[in-house]
Fold this protein.
Amino acid sequence: TVLMTEGRPLTEADVFAPGARWQNFVTARAVAEIRRQLPAYPAPPRRDVYENATKPHLWLVTENALVLVLPPQSITGWSYADPPDGLEVAIPWTDLREYLNPNAPAPIRPAV
């Protein structure tokens, strides 16, 4: 993901306020959503999800949500084919409101 206004890779500071402790919130939401989407799969180890969910190069910034693109092979016990359609977790900006950087270089504004 690239910050188009500056032509550089997006960083966590571009999205989240310093000291906001967003990592645990994002990880917990991702684990819960993975379990909801894939009830037949073993629960993903939290540390695997954390390691991926906190990497800006695995994020898509959309108008409505921060989308985490999680490589299935990065989840212990899963392979490239698990799940067959890949794995994405969308967290709405409204749910991230308290963690967002109010001085972000490009506007990310949670809808009401």
